[in-house]
């Protein structure tokens, strides 16, 4: 008998509709995303890139409510390993997203570190490994961000390990968690990105359960991933190759991940994100419907 995952709140995001940018001719209009995410059976959404959905809080609240949806989080990219020099610019951007997130009822801010190589061209933007000083800037900066976001906007930040960033592999994720205060910073565990970088999501949940503040659900195609790793392909082209695939066809198996999350005994968002930029406009909805049915079969 499938376990009832009553602590898991399932949602989806613009990413599952091929949306990576605030404005791009390859992306579906925001109205279509909202219509289809509701049609697919999801109750919760993320805001996606700032400016893709309306940024006027009243209008956004009306559009979301009209489709019986609610907002779980906003998302920001940061480069805090560069130290205090980037704080003011970071805070200006974070403030925009956090204010909108709070205004429409969201409680989390997903924080993604900046890329060390160009997402499209593979050009090396900076070294893959941080220096000790940069690690200190990163961890202290994230703690400061967590404190300021909580104090100013009442939101919790959850840091998202991501392919081609400095928080990616098991070693990097554990170093980051061991170097930060759980009262200020916790993790958005993206099952697909963690598998992409060789990590075991169930192990991470069981080892660092108190630090898991949020989930992104996705899977990788192991055959495509092997080719991506062998050819040192950057993340953007890897996505175009189909490295992130429709569940339950890839890894990790999501049922044990969700069961491990349920055992933590706390309420957690689990937001579906199947990276597939760019994609044909008619592709996302059928996948979203099947994915929601699959997650229901897991008890979520």
Automatic annotation (TrEMBL):
<dbReference type="InterPro" id="IPR050312">
    <property type="entry name" value="IolE/XylAMocC-like"/>
</dbReference>
<keyword id="KW-0413">Isomerase</keyword>
<dbReference type="InterPro" id="IPR036237">
    <property type="entry name" value="Xyl_isomerase-like_sf"/>
</dbReference>
<feature type="domain" description="Xylose isomerase-like TIM barrel">
    <location>
        <begin position="34"/>
        <end position="297"/>
    </location>
</feature>
<dbReference type="Pfam" id="PF01261">
    <property type="entry name" value="AP_endonuc_2"/>
</dbReference>
<dbReference type="InterPro" id="IPR013022">
    <property type="entry name" value="Xyl_isomerase-like_TIM-brl"/>
</dbReference>
<dbReference type="GO" id="GO:0016853">
    <property type="term" value="F:isomerase activity"/>
</dbReference>
<protein>
    <submittedName>
        <fullName>Sugar phosphate isomerase/epimerase</fullName>
    </submittedName>
</protein>
């Amino acid at each position: 008998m499938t376990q009832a995952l009553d602590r898991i709140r399932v949602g989806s995001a613009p990413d599952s509709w091929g949306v990576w940018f605030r404005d791009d001719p390859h992306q579906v209009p925001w109205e279509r995303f909202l219509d289809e995410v509701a049609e697919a059976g999801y109750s919760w959404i993320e805001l996606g890139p700032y400016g893709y959905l309306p940024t006027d809080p009243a209008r956004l609240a009306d559009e979301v409510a009209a489709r019986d949806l609610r907002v779980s989080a906003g998302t920001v990219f940061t480069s805090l390993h560069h130290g205090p020099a980037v704080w003011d610019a970071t805070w200006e951007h974070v403030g925009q997203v956090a204010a909108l997130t709070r205004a429409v009822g969201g409680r989390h801010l997903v924080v993604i570190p900046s890329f060390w190589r160009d997402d499209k061209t593979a050009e090396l933007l900076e070294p893959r490994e941080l220096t000790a000083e940069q690690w200190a800037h990163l961890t202290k900066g994230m703690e400061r961000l967590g404190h300021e976001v909580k104090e100013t906007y009442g939101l919790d930040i959850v840091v998202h390990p991501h392919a081609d960033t400095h928080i990616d592999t098991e070693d990097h994720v554990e170093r980051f968690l061991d170097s930060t205060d759980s009262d200020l910073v916790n993790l958005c565990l993206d099952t697909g990105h963690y598998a992409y970088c060789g990590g075991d999501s169930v192990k991470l949940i069981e080892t660092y359960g108190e630090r898991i503040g949020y989930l992104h659900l996705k899977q990788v195609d192991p055959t495509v991933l092997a080719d991506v790793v062998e050819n040192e392909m950057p993340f953007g082209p890897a996505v175009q190759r189909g490295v992130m695939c429709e569940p339950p066809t890839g890894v990790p198996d999501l049922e044990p991940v969700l069961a491990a999350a349920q055992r933590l005994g706390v309420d957690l968002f689990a937001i579906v994100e199947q990276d597939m930029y760019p994609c044909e406009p008619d592709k996302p909805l059928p996948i979203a419907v099947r994915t929601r049915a699959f997650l229901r079969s897991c008890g979520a």
